[in-house]
Amino acid sequence: MITPADERLLRRAIEIAAHAVTLGDAPYGSLLAGPDGEILAEEHNTVRRDDDISAHPELKLARWAARELDPDVAAQTTMYTSCQPCGMCTGGIVRSGLGRVVYALSTEQLVELNPGSSWPTVEQEGPALFEEARLPIETFYRR
Q1: Fewer Cβ atoms within 10 A, N terminus or C terminus of the chain?
Q2: d(Cα 90, Cα 3) in Å, to the nearest integer?
Q3: Sign (positive/negative) of CA torsion 14, 16, 22, 25?
Q4: Are 57 and 111 in contact (CB under 8 A)?
Q5: What is the pLDDT of residue 118?
Q6: Cis, bond preceding 57 (omega within 30 deg of 0)
Q7: Are 82 and 113 within 8 A, CB to CB?
Q8: Can you say whether the dihedral through the CA atoms of 117, 49, 104, 81 is positive or negative?
């Protein structure tokens, strides 16, 4: 359930997205808040500026949290973001151990507003070569 406090922080994420546009960057903004609502870090999309396809604000914050926060603290945070995180960012958020995500626009709403923003699917095939592929995995995890 989204609370008035969530709405306040979500509005800040939208402000970050709007400011990104004034800098010539894509219109996406995010922030990470602690359990008391204190803003711990803010980021916006810098994919074009950095020439880096992974420079989404959600992923930048997830990486920051994984480096800078104790896992117990990370689990109590909430990420507020102007748009629903993409698959890449969702993976980073999960791996970083963040506790919760609150977003303004859904992916479907974003695609409606910007019809060219959906991503094509990439065919994946596998699994294959299990006996060979398992060796480095087993070697690493059995140390």
Answers
A1: N
A2: 22
A3: negative
A4: no
A5: 78
A6: no
A7: no
A8: positive
Question: Is the separation of the CB atoms in 97 and 64 below 8 Å?
Answer: no
Q: What are the structure tokens assigned to 100, written together?
A: 């919760």
Residue carrying structure tokens 């990439």: 122
Classify residue 37 as left (phi > 0), alpha (psi -120 to 50) or beta. left
pLDDT band at 117 (very low <50, low <70, confident <90, very high): confident
Q: Which amino acid is at 120?
A: P
Q: For residues 127 and 86, give the distance between their C-alpha atoms in angstroms, rounded to a whole number.
A: 24
For the purposes of burial, counting CB atoms within 10 Å of the CB of 30, is it exposed (0-12), middle (13-18) or buried (19 or more)? buried
SS3 of residue 41 by DSSP: strand
Those residues whose C-beta lies under 8 Å from the C-beta of residue 108, and which sit 6 or more positions away, are none
Q: Read off the pLDDT of residues 31-55 as tens digits, 9 standing for 90 and up.
A: 999 999 999 999 999 999 999 999 9
**Cα separation of 26 and 13, whole Å?**
13
* pTM for the whole structure: 0.91
Rounded Cα gap, residues 107 and 2, in angstroms:
18
Q: Are strands 78-83 and 29-33 parallel, antiparallel or unpaired?
A: antiparallel
